[in-house]
Automatic annotation (TrEMBL):
Pfam family membership, one: AA_permease_2
Subcellular location(s) of the protein: Membrane
Organism expressing this protein natively: Microbulbifer okhotskensis
Superkingdom, taxonomy of origin: Bacteria
Keywords: Membrane, Transmembrane, Transmembrane helix
Entry protein name: APC family permease
Length: 498
């Protein structure tokens, strides 16, 4: 067993499923019901099913790669294993940076919720954390580090306990809200508003990113980050992905119905329908409005627990992503050193913690970062179908469909956010290429790094759906063809990555 896969495999199917489920109940679920209703009205339920289906098929692609290479940080290593490390750089940077930014956003969300709970202008003012608020958020980051510092065993034990609490709170909220719904006569009128006719399939599709559904579901991949530490990964990883997505989808669908059915009808009519509904803290404000003060207290407690649990799990995952990048030469190899006792790379973990702290200090709000983080996530997902098609050519047409769908999803990101994601990846790749040009040569750097960057900028400049679908499928088939893959692998052997 090589340096990337060595170590104990002591994470069970249940723990792997709970690891993914934990990160799918972070800060997103506290806002998603209102945001999805605003974006899609009655089509909100389809939006959740579309988002769940999307992450599930991406998970299936990734599971096939992990079945062949059950390595630590498998998502970020996928394209490096199937092609080479330079071709995989855009996906590696996107996955790593997206995962890293989640750690900062969850710590920030925890602080914001706590500030709202005690109504403190000392911690937050005008929806922006004060210096004292940021100091508290950094303290929360330190707790994330402590939980992760002693390896997967401690993380899994803490996470199993926290997950029970996190699953209980949405179920408790659902139960209370449904009791209100079934004792009310306004439910049907909420779903038969005249304004609902303004929504359609396009709204459901755009809500996948705009309402934070991908952000909410992104935790499905966390079990993959621990691939080398999970028992029987070929069987348990796809099962963990499927089970966690199925469980959380049911929770989100039920929550969406309970929220939409329990909002007072006269409030909706007064605000012109779902688009005009604007609670600052949707579930908390709704519980207060309905006089459900005990539920409000439970939601306040969970608003601290849920983001924190997602935050410390993402810190563990991001350290494994950075380890994976270092192990294949995409980052300095001194980061790819495992602690002999706890089987983790503490150097990678500390590096990620410092970077998350920098992001946290410079960020203003949770909402500001959510869409950008999602853009990085979707680009990171694109590595899965490409690598699957390269490693198992018989799956290329399925992979091409998944890749084209992800391309369409990127079109729903606001142009300014897509530009920021694209330019940041371009700058990182150019910097990496500058450092590597002496050893690699410009022709090979262009042949490996340029194709995906060109595709990404094409998405920014061309917004015609049928053109994007055709170009996406053609691009996918070209980079997953055995001729191109063989060319990439020849270069990989030449520079001696393994």
């Amino acid at each position: 067993m090589d340096h990337a896969t060595g170590g104990k495999t002591n994470v069970s199917l249940i723990s792997a499923t709970l690891l993914s489920a934990t990160c799918m109940i972070g800060s997103g679920w506290l806002f998603s019901a209102q945001l999805t209703a605003q974006y899609a009205g009655n089509w909100a339920f389809l939006a959740w099913l579309l988002a769940a289906s999307l992450v599930w098929i991406v998970g299936l692609c990734l599971a096939r790669v992990v079945a062949i290479y059950p390595v630590r940080g498998a998502l970020v290593q996928a394209s490096a294993l199937s092609h080479n490390r330079i071709f995989g750089m855009p996906f590696a940077f996107a996955n790593w940076f997206g995962t890293l930014m989640v750690v900062a956003t969850e710590a920030q969300a925890t602080t914001q919720y706590l500030s709202s709970a005690i109504d403190s202008a000392f911690l937050i003012e005008n929806h922006v954390l004060t210096p004292w608020g940021k100091a508290l958020a950094l303290g929360i980051l330190a707790v994330y580090l402590l939980i992760n510092f002693y390896g997967i065993s401690l993380l899994a034990k803490v996470n199993n306990i926290i997950t029970v609490l996190k699953i209980f709170t949405p179920l408790f909220a659902l139960t209370v809200l449904l009791i209100v719904v079934f004792s009310s006569d306004t439910t049907s009128s909420n779903f038969s508003l005249v304004s609902n006719q303004e929504f359609g399939f396009g709204n459901a599709f755009s809500a996948i990113i705009g309402a934070g559904l991908i952000y909410s579901f992104n935790g499905f991949q966390i079990s993959v980050a621990f691939a080398s530490e999970i028992k029987n990964p070929e069987r348990n990883i796809p099962l963990a992905i499927t089970l966690s997505i199925a469980i959380i989808t049911l929770v989100y669908l039920a929550l969406q119905y309970a929220f939409m059915a329990s909002v007072p009808n006269d409030l909706l009519v007064a605000n012109g329908g779902w688009q005009g509904l604007d609670f600052d803290s949707p579930l908390l404000d709704l519980a207060t409005l309905l006089g459900l003060h005990f539920l409000a207290m439970v939601l306040l407690a969970d608003s601290v627990t849920s983001p924190s649990a997602a935050g410390y799990t993402y810190l563990g995952a991001s350290s494994r992503v950075l380890f994976a990048m270092a192990s294949v030469g995409q980052m300095p190899r001194w980061l790819a050193v495992l602690d002999p006792v706890h089987n983790i790379s503490r150097r990678s973990m500390l590096t990620n913690w410092l970077l998350a702290a920098i992001v946290l200090v410079n960020a203003e709000s949770w909402a500001e970062l959510m869409v950008i983080v999602t853009g990085y996530h979707v680009i990171g997902y694109m590595a899965a179908p490409i690598s699957m098609g390269a490693l198992e050519p018989q799956t290329r047409w399925f992979g091409g469909g998944v890749f084209a769908l992800l391309g369409l999803i990127l079109l729903t990101i606001p142009p300014s956010s897509l530009f920021l994601v694209s330019i940041s990846l371009t700058v990182l790749i150019c910097l990496y290429g500058f450092l590597q040009i002496a050893d690699t040569g410009a022709p090979k750097l262009v042949a490996f790094a340029l194709p995906f960057l060109a595709y990404l900028w094409f998405l920014y400049f061309v917004q015609i759906i049928w053109v994007v679908v055709i170009v996406s499928v053609v691009f996918y088939l070209l980079v997953s063809t055995q001729l191109y893959v063989k060319f990439c692998k020849t270069y990989r052997k030449y520079i001696g990555e393994y």
